[in-house]
Amino acid sequence: MLQLVLAVSAFTVAAAVYAVIGLRWWRWARMQRTILGLVAALDLEPYHVAALKSEGAEAAAAELLLDGYLDIDGAGAARLTEEGREPGRTPPAHPLPAALLEAVRRYDPEPVSIGSIDRYDTEYQIRRGAYERERDALLPPIPRIPRDPQERGRLMDCCGCVGIVLLLNFWIAVGLLLVLARPHGVRAWAAAVVAAGCLAALCYAEGAGRAVRTRTACEDPLGDRLRTEFHPALAALDEWQRLRIRLSADDDRRRPGVVDEDDEDDEDDEDDDWWADAYHYRASDDDDDDDEPDGKPLG
Questions:
Q1: What pLDDT is recorded for position 57?
Q2: Which residue, of 39, 157, 191, 296, has the greatest Cβ tally within 10 A?
Q3: Please, are residues 128 and 99 in contact by the beta-carbon 8 Å criterion?
Q4: DSSP secondary-structure letter at 217?
Q5: What confidence score (pLDDT) does residue 286 get?
Q6: Distance of CA 192 to the CA centre of its chain
Q7: Which residues of 47-61 are buried (b: 16+ CB within 10 A; e: fewer)?
């Protein structure tokens, strides 16, 4: 009789635990489908995608490079071409490449890097920020699956902790009773086996919860979509052009009127070498004077 009660109790608790896990899986999977459908339906402009990936300046430079407005050498220095210097030529229609072209023209004829314009040119930053704010305002709010403790609330966390403590005590009590109470008869042994199987199933409940969390993962759906999309101008470049644009975008030191710190370090190293050589020559002269004998020569 005791084994039957233990079997029914263990089966009820195991069914309740896995029912909660199943309901959570159904709820999270439904939210995941909703979020992914919302992100997939977004009408993102190519330059907006590049701006969200922090590649807006590179995409604008790629379009100007393909249209013949500017040229970028192997060191990452951007210069206007003859066509780019023509005042009557129609500027790009999009605000980002148009702002970048105006920034390069302000420094012409001196070379400048795309990274220095993106980080230090105030007018370009103002126009870029206005475009990004305009496009970001069109994005709908993307919901998140409430998995963090701060999102669930303190009450839910307390209920979860109490449930885990009660479940652990129940598992220990049923296990001890199964070990101490010897079953008699086929029905008692069958009930004991069922109870033991339910206790074993409860041991895998935590792993089942982790599997549900992994399969319904939706941490950054917008970022996942952005990583699969590329700006058409960047995709049209060959490997050498893409490398030059990347070098120019990563370089923020090439600014007209600003001395490169590496050049200053090289000059300081040359000065240090000059003083070291002068000290070496002075020491050599002193050694030569010490080698000369004092007084009259012998013999």
A1: 92
A2: 191
A3: yes
A4: -
A5: 52
A6: 52
A7: bbbbbbbebbbbbbb
| pLDDT for position 90 | 81
* Cα gap 146→99, rounded to integer Å: 41
Whether the CB-CB separation of 100 and 125 falls below 8 Å is answered with no
Which H or E run contains 150? helix 149-152
SS3 of residue 72 by DSSP: strand
Q: What is the DSSP letter of 293?
A: P
Say if CB 251 and CB 113 are below 8 A apart.
yes
Q: CB count, 10 Å around CB of 99?
A: 24
DSSP, collapsed to helix, strand or coil, labels residue 31 as: helix
Q: What DSSP designation does 229 have? A: -
DSSP collapsed to 3 states, 80-149: ECHHHHCCCCCCCCCHHHHHHHHHHHHHCCCCECHHHHHHHCHHHHHHHHHHHHHHHCCCCCCCCCCCCH
- In angstroms, what CA-CA distances link 154 with 158, 219, 256? 6, 22, 56
- In whole angstroms, give the CA distance from residue 167 to residue 197: 16
Tokens matching residue 165: 């403590």
For the chain, 299 residues long, the average pLDDT of each consecutive 10-residue run is 82 91 92 92 92 92 91 88 82 90 88 90 92 92 74 69 83 83 83 88 89 87 90 91 90 58 48 46 50 45
User: By the 8 A CB rule, do 222 and 39 touch?
Assistant: yes
Give the pTM.
0.69
